[in-house]
């Protein structure tokens, strides 16, 4: 790593790569405190204290096509957004490795345990720690700018980066997601979100609408931020 400038702010370089790939949101979190929650080898993650969170803002027009259930257009959009996030994570990984550091890209949508809806790690928790948004009643990250209309991927790394601070905010009095949830899985308290009910609804949607993945989008559609077109 002799060619690495240890005094350089690599956040700016990482952010340039993210933005050049059409990704809108970016943040860095120290994830050491949640390593035990990862479904990854501890001997690997212990050496990767930082989590780079990247977020793509979904198409408002696509979301508007969702009336009372997910459709094929939304499913296609969902898939392609995940692909873009994964591609960007790979480019970040290549850049970080070129500096002589470690990088572990975590797929945007790769569930290990569907009943518990768990991936290798929680993109949402890392996005919250990285100051991108807060965890909303709908169990999604809510950005002040774009609401819950964002999908995420994560790159774990040991590249020295400056950490962002979590946002001290919540959903306040907004309960739009509660009224549109067909599963009645969303409650007043964030901690009361019923993941099992949500998953049962996703299974029903997948079967009924011939979707290749468990998607919904109803609570995403109504959860808007200050920059999301109304």
Please characterize this protein's 3D structure.
The protein has 230 residues and is α+β, with helices and mostly antiparallel strands. The protein is 34% helix and 15% strand. The protein has helices at residues 10-20, 42-45, 60-64, 72-98, 123-129, 176-180, 195-208, 218-222; strands at 25-30, 50-57, 103-106, 111-113, 118-119, 134-135, 141-142, 150-157. The model has no long low-confidence stretch (mean pLDDT 93).
Give Rg in angstroms.
Answer: 18 Å
Give the N-terminus to C-terminus distance in angstroms: 48 Å
Strand order of the largest sheet: 1-2-8-3
Mean pLDDT: 93
The string of secondary-structure elements, in order, is HEHEHHEEEHEEEHHH
Shape: globular
Index terms:
globular, 230 residues, 15% strand, alpha+beta
Topology of this protein?
Layout: H1 10-20, E1 25-30, H2 42-45, E2 50-57, H3 60-64, H4 72-98, E3 103-106, E4 111-113, E5 118-119, H5 123-129, E6 134-135, E7 141-142, E8 150-157, H6 176-180, H7 195-208, H8 218-222
Antiparallel strand pairs: 1-2, 2-8, 3-8, 4-5, 6-7
């Amino acid at each position: 790593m002799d060619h690495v400038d240890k005094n350089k702010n690599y956040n700016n370089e990482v952010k340039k790569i993210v933005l050049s790939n059409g990704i809108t949101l970016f943040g860095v979190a120290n994830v050491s405190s949640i390593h035990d929650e990862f479904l990854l080898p501890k001997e690997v993650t212990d050496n990767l204290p930082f989590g780079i969170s990247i977020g793509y803002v979904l198409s408002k027009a696509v979301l508007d096509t969702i009336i009372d259930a997910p459709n094929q257009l939304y499913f296609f959009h969902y898939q392609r957004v995940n692909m873009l996030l994964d591609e960007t994570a790979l480019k970040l990984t290549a850049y970080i490795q070129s500096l002589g550091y470690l990088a572990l890209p975590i797929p945007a949508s790769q569930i290990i345990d569907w009943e518990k809806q768990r991936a290798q790690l929680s993109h949402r928790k890392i996005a919250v720690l990285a100051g991108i948004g807060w965890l909303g009643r709908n169990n999604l990250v809510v950005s002040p700018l774009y609401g819950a209309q964002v999908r995420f991927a994560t790159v774990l790394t040991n590249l020295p980066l400056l950490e962002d601070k979590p946002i001290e905010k919540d959903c306040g009095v907004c309960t739009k997601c509660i009224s549109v949830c067909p599963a009645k899985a969303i409650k007043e308290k964030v901690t009361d979100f019923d993941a099992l009910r949500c998953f049962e609804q996703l299974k029903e949607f997948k079967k009924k609408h011939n979707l290749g993945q468990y998607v919904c989008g109803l609570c995403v559609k109504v959860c808007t931020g200050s920059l999301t077109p109304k």
